[in-house]
Design goal:
Structural class: alpha+beta
Shape: rod-shaped
Number of helices: 11
Largest sheet: 7 strands, antiparallel
Radius of gyration: 45 Å
CATH superfamily of the largest domain: Histidine kinase-like ATPase, C-terminal domain
Number of strands: 15
Strand content: 15-25%
């Protein structure tokens, strides 16, 4: 039986006994008046009434000592531990009365709760002080730090970030990230895409990006380049779920762009003499091929010269087109074209290149292909890069196959397969990045790391997708799709209705980060 039940039962018993005693005293008083003083009814009832009026005062005093006194002790204990109850003495636990055991335990609980409250208050004060110190330290760090809350709005910015982004508290804190900066990335791995995935499936996550293009709404023409580090912690008690750290590398990355521009200018100067050399080599080759007794070794030299000239032309075109992409000057004119004819042209052009490497080209073209909407020059460059890579990485005596078919979504798919060494899994996600080359092959196979980057950019500009499937030791398959011309009918065309104008760009703009 618990203490409260015992107190309740004893209280009812005491109250019942007091009421019985009171009634007995009243009746006894009436009997004694009637027997010893007077038999008059008035005197009898008068005596009983007098006792009935005086006796409750005694009962109330007794009940007060039994029930009210424990409550007073509890109230005194609460005032004793309350911050506003200074000066109130501790209750005398020797005067607990009927509820002694219950009151003692309740008072002890009050003291324990008070101790816990003081401990929590001290801890909270220490925590708040620590958080304040941490926030102050972060604010003064010489790094551009931005904190986002659960909704993706800016909750904190360091002093360096305010200065770097040329904004202030009123125009940034509480606003979405896009209100103070625009970010563009070199691949589809954007901050917004990564953060959405982290929110959906992670408790803690982090990621880094290099060479991120940054502009601000107030100065959209001033381009800066930063490295970005992001950390995410779900339901962070501080309220900051996402932290961003920006490190400016504008001078370094712009120097790279200037080097790229200089290289493009130098390569452009090579284009004319290269075209002349290829023309002379092809003319000499054709003249010797017409002779019955042409020296075989000379013919072999000319074939290799033609193949090398073709490889150099691909290199030159890649450099020039990447430079145009970076400057936003590569404009595509999408027009209706025959995809089968384009595939056959690439096979014809690269037959000699494959022959000099002792590689067989196979082609398989489906019969039900619709006309496509492409810029022939740029889409040819995509095919040239994929076929060139397949030939370059394939061993002598192997086969490179080109297959084109109608995909399930109505798009025209083209697959280029080789029997080369394959690509490590760790490298596949980086293949389409600018200047990236697999370290397993770059030491013994020449390349610039621009062909796949440019191919992806051009395919995306056509409204298509590009992908790769590969496994080390089992060769590689590069594929891409493009839209049939009929699916482009709804897009705005030029005044002559001859095609669709698009601009190829290598940057993917980050969406506004906001989560409700």
């Amino acid at each position: 039986m618990d203490q409260l039940t015992r107190f309740s039962r004893s209280s009812r018993a005491y109250t019942y006994v007091l009421l019985v005693i009171g009634n007995a005293v009243v009746l006894t008083t009436g009997w004694m008046v009637y027997t010893y003083l007077s038999r008059e009814v008035l005197f009898v009832f008068g005596g009983m009434a007098l006792v009935a009026l005086v006796l409750p005062l005694l009962i109330v005093w007794i009940i007060n000592s039994l029930y009210i006194r424990p409550l007073q002790l509890l109230w005194q204990a609460i005032l004793f531990v309350a911050p506003s109850g200074s000066g109130v003495p501790a209750p005398d636990m020797q005067r607990t009365g009927n509820a002694s055991e219950l009151v003692r335990n309740l008072v002890n609980h009050i003291y324990q709760l008070a101790d816990m409250g003081q401990t929590v208050a001290k801890h909270s004060e220490a925590t708040n002080s620590s958080l304040t110190n941490q926030a102050d330290a972060l604010y003064r760090l010489p790094a551009a730090i931005i904190m986002l809350d659960k909704a993706g709005n800016i909750a904190f910015m360091s002093e360096t970030a305010f200065g770097y982004l040329e904004t202030d508290y009123d125009h940034s804190v509480g606003q979405p990230l896009a209100a103070i900066l625009d970010l563009s990335f070199r691949s589809e791995n954007t901050l917004d895409g990564w953060l959405q995935q982290a929110v959906a499936s992670e408790v803690r996550a982090s990621n880094t990006w290099e060479r991120v293009k940054l502009t601000t709404p107030t100065k959209p023409d001033e381009v800066r380049f930063v490295d970005l580090v992001a950390g995410y912690l779900k339901d962070n008690p501080s309220g900051y779920e996402t932290m961003l750290i920006l490190t400016d590398h504008t001078s370094t990355y712009k120097a790279d762009d200037q080097s790229m521009s200089f290289l493009a200018m130098a390569v452009h100067e090579m284009r004319t003499p290269l075209t002349v050399l290829r023309g002379y080599v092809e003319a000499i080759h054709d003249d010797l091929a017409a002779q019955k007794n042409a020296p075989a070794d000379i013919m072999g030299y000319l074939q290799r010269a033609e193949a090398s000239g073709q490889q150099m032309t691909t290199f030159v075109n890649n450099i020039l087109n990447v430079s145009r992409v970076e400057d936003g000057q590569l404009v595509l004119q999408l027009a209706e074209d025959n995809w089968q004819a384009i595939i056959q042209q690439i096979i014809k052009d690269y037959a000699l290149r494959a022959q000099t490497r002792e590689i067989k080209l196979e082609v398989k073209i489906a019969d039900n292909l619709p006309s496509v909407g492409v810029d022939r020059v740029s889409i040819y460059q995509v095919l040239a890069n994929l076929v060139e890579n397949a030939i370059k990485y394939s061993p002598a005596g192997s086969t490179v196959s080109i297959e084109t078919q109608l995909g399930r979504d109505g798009r025209v798919e083209t697959l280029v397969r080789d029997q080369g060494p394959g690509i490590p899994t760790s490298s596949i996600s980086h293949l389409f990045e600018k200047f990236y080359r697999d370290h397993h092959n770059k030491s013994h196979i020449n390349g610039t790391g621009l062909g796949l980057y440019l191919s992806k950019t051009l395919v995306n500009a056509h409204g298509g997708e590009i992908w790769v499937h590969s496994k080390e030791g089992e060769g590689s398959e590069f594929g891409f799709n493009i839209l049939p011309y009929s699916q482009l009918a709804s897009e705005q065309k030029d005044s002559n209705n001859n095609g669709i104008t698009r601009t190829a760009h290598g940057w993917i703009k980050n969406h506004s980060i906001y989560r409700g």
